[in-house]
Design the sequence.
């Protein structure tokens, strides 16, 4: 059995992967990770740094993945950056090792700049929501419910702080995992933004494009994405140099 760990985007939750996980073949076991403050973990205090998030996710995979299972990671947007850092952290820990990192819908880490130079604490709710809108990170229908909207904004603040913490401290991380960039054809990121992912791995880079925009995995891109993931994960592991 092979395991596919899935890391969500900023402001997101495990729900973003519902369609994708239903489309995966039976020989791939999905492990959908969820950071504190949302979904099944909504009672837990949200994290605010990349180091905390990486530790949380690394501990999860160390507990979830058996010694006889192979691991790959699919990280979407913020999750792509966390996936890179988690893959490297697992290598330092001695396992389980990530064979393939599917880095979805984000530019190469070394090209990124902080979203909020002074942190989200000094940003207004409107500024946080404007940033989320640029990356399709929030369902606008939630804003019609004041209590839910307040919670969503608070969660976005913590996740954006995680993203900015990663950019400041972990953007030069390198992994032994093979990196496969996945992106929507209508997303803002082109070759100039994603090709430099090559420098975050010791193995050659592969880039795959799918129909749709930033959240292509919830729309027309879901079926071809699931097929591509299954195909890549079925390939023999490449030797690490």
Sequence:
């Amino acid at each position: 059995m092979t395991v596919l760990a899935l890391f969500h985007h900023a402001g997101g939750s495990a729900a973003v992967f519902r369609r994708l996980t239903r489309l995966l073949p039976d020989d791939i076991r999905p492990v959908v990770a969820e950071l504190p403050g949302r979904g099944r973990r909504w009672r837990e205090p949200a994290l605010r740094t990349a180091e905390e998030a990486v530790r949380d996710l690394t501990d999860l995979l160390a507990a979830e993945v058996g010694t006889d299972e192979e691991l790959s990671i699919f990280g979407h947007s913020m999750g792509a950056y966390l996936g890179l850092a988690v893959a490297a952290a697992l290598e330092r820990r001695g396992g389980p090792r990530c064979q393939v990192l599917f880095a979805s819908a984000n530019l190469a880490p070394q090209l990124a700049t902080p979203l909020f130079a002074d942190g989200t604490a000094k940003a207004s709710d409107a500024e946080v929501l404007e940033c989320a809108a640029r990356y399709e990170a929030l369902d606008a229908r939630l804003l019609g419910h004041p209590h839910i909207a307040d919670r969503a904004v608070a969660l976005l603040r913590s996740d954006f702080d995680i993203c900015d913490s990663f950019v400041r401290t972990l953007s030069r991380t390198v992994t032994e995992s093979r990196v496969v960039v996945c992106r929507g054809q209508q997303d803002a990121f082109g070759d100039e933004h994603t090709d430099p992912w090559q420098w975050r791995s010791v193995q050659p880079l592969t880039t795959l494009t799918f129909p749709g925009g930033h959240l292509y995995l919830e729309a027309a891109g879901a079926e071809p994405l699931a097929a591509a993931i299954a195909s890549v994960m079925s390939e023999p592991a490449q030797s690490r140099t």
